[in-house]
What does this fold into?
Amino acid sequence: MSAATPTPVQPNPLGGESYRLTLPSTANAPRLARDFLTSLLHLSRHPGLVDDARLCVTELVTNAHRHTRTPLIGVHVAVNRKRVTVAVSDDGGPAGTALARPLRTDGEQEHGRGLVLVESLALAWGTGGGGERHPGRTVVWFTLGRPGVTA
It folds into this structure.
């Protein structure tokens, strides 16, 4: 029997602590991500961010589950005393499949308003890919901060 090799975790560029959760892409994934993030925010003394964080992570994990063929969804949370950044990743296809739809706010469409919601709640948000190391990986992230805290 060989010893397990720990996977190196990149340092949190914001300072503070960094956490990762890997979920199977099932209908339960959004709830599990919400519960994970809620616990982290309460423990890190960010209870005022819980409601917005729960909405945003639900949207991103739901998108990964519904719009990709990824077997696993990653949730990476970086927390410091002022902010929390959450990144949701999937290996379901090129960045742009689920995210390429235009963001509309006219209330006419039944689906596709989730990223508009994330944009309205977050201090910042964006998308990226896995680069050469993980081609086909899509990463969508958002940052929330305590009310009244700047930079």
Residues 103 and 109 are 10 Å apart (CA to CA). Helices lie at 29-43, 50-67, 114-121.
